[in-house]
Design a protein that fits this description.
137 residues; 2 domains
Length: 137
């Protein structure tokens, strides 16, 4: 990943890390998420191609994997994909366990504050998150 001269190698490495996310072993998925967080600034497009499998990691039973996936989703969010990502996260908020709901709600609100396309959408989304989170926040 540190070789600056070869973007092709970096993309290949990121794609391999993306495939590691489908592994059943928790340690492999955790390390892949951790490394993707580190390289997302080097090659945003290559990492964001794995958005669906990263989002699927939120459904994992291991809280560490959920937190890493949420941190990575936060890093790949931008003004172009903010609506679709917040929609996915809000849908997951419905079924999230109570110990993870607080952190998930916080990240959704941070994403909304940072990338909201309009003030109305920002306020509507935050109110929806607060309503759905209940006493978790």
């Amino acid at each position: 990943m540190a070789i600056e001269a070869s973007q092709g190698l970096r993309v290949l490495g990121i794609n391999i890390l993306g495939r590691f996310l489908a592994n059943k072993e928790n340690n492999v998925r955790y390390v892949a998420l951790q490394q993707l967080i580190l390289v997302v600034d080097l090659d945003y497009n290559a990492v964001s191609r794995h958005r669906q499998i990263i989002t699927d990691c939120l459904k994992d039973h291991d809280i560490c994997i959920k937190k890493q996936a949420l941190d990575l989703i936060y890093k790949i969010t931008n003004s172009m994909n903010v609506k679709s990502i917040t929609k996915e996260l809000i849908n997951y908020l419905l079924v999230a366990d109570s110990e993870f709901r607080k952190e998930l709600s916080n990240k959704i609100c941070l994403i909304c504050e940072k990338y909201a396309p309009t003030k109305k959408w920002h306020i509507d989304t935050v109110v929806k998150v607060l309503t759905m989170s209940g006493s978790s926040v």
